[in-house]
Amino acid sequence: MEKIVKDTVSIFENIPLRDTPTDPGELPEALAVIVVDYDGVNPSKLVTGKMAPEQQKPVYYENFILRICELYGKRFIGR
Description:
The chain is mostly helical. The protein is about 35% helix and about 5% strand.
C-alpha cells in the first residue's frame, strides 16, 4: 500500500500548475495533497510520515496556501 500511496502523491506533484491568468484555464493554480489513514471503522488520522507529501513539494499544504495567497495577491491586489 505504501508504494500505491507514494505513486498517487507523485501523480499530483507532477501536474503542471497555472502561473498567470493567460495560462490554459484547465490547469489548476495550486493543489494540495492530504493523506488520511481511514479504514471506515476507526477515527481517521492525518498521515504526516513518509507517505505524505514532503515539505519542499508544491502539494504540501502550507506551500499550497502560500502559492494561492501569492497568486491572488498579484491578481487582485497588485502585489
